[in-house]
What we know:
Elements: H1 2-6, H2 33-41, E1 46-51, E2 54-60, E3 63-65, H3 70-74, E4 79-88, E5 91-98, E6 104-105, E7 120-121, E8 128-130, H4 133-138, H5 144-161, E9 174-176, E10 181-183, E11 190-191, E12 196-205, E13 208-213, E14 225-228, H6 235-247, E15 251-262, E16 267-276, E17 290-295, H7 296-303, H8 319-329
Amino acid sequence: xxxxxxxxxxxxxxxxxxxxxxxxxxxxxxxxxxxxxxxxxxxxxxxxxxxxxxxxxxxxxxxxxxxxxxxxxxxxxxxxxxxxxxxxxxxxxxxxxxxxxxxxxxxxxxxxxxxxxxxxxxxxxxxxxxxxxxxxxxxxxxxxxxxxxxxxxxxxxxxxxxxxxxxxxxxxxxxxxxxxxxxxxxxxxxxxxxxxxxxxxxxxxxxxxxxxxxxxxxxxxxxxxxxxxxxxxxxxxxxxxxxxxxxxxxxxxxxxxxxxxxxxxxxxxxxxxxxxxxxxxxxxxxxxxxxxxxxxxxxxxxxxxxxxxxxxxxxxxxxxxxxxxxxxxxxxxxx
Length: 335
């Protein structure tokens, strides 16, 4: 069945952090403790390991290897959470969150820095690397299914780390269902992982598309507009609202293109095209530094890194890159 499914690979499957179609998530077996225990005991079982938000990888002659045996991973430090990711043809796969004490931070903190970017390491293991998942993906150090499973693991473990108490009564909760649920022993509430939907879209008018730039972007980079889907909204409504709020452009028909799991921390990027019904841009200064229309030829040069003004597009790790490539490579049907 999975082989037949792979014959229908969509654009989403080609975007980084996607590509888990060969994984049997075993969702119907997560409450079967004996079954899960047998998976743990399987000699072919492997696990991904995180310390906080950082995945641990082994440096080998072939590159970075993020997989460890369960016994090997357990020796790295105190284990806070373990979750079953599923089963591949090669064996069961897990995700494991170590206590922060498993790693040491090098150097002195910068009081002016908003984010602590000091390097961390596992004591006594110079061959182990603690890396930022976004950087690993952008540099191509991890790709394909291992990257997709790291994204799955990161989002799930992030949820556990930040939902240790029951939101109904405030008492401590505990992990159940092989890491896919938290139960409250006090009020019996059950809590499940959440994924935050984000719409990301190109407003298109004939041979031009609309892109904007945030002050957080690198110099000269423009990207698709994006925003969180709000309660009570459809995807189409969210696309039209976000484009209107950020750029003042009215849009009509919305077409779904592709989606991407985005584990920063736990979102699903829903990529769309939207037919523009107006042209005059009014920028929301709190969201954007600039927004403008780009021709198809301009976008081609930006994707190639050859724009005459030095303007650029997002890297391949982002779904915005693939939205732009999809638009450039084919004429969008506006009818």
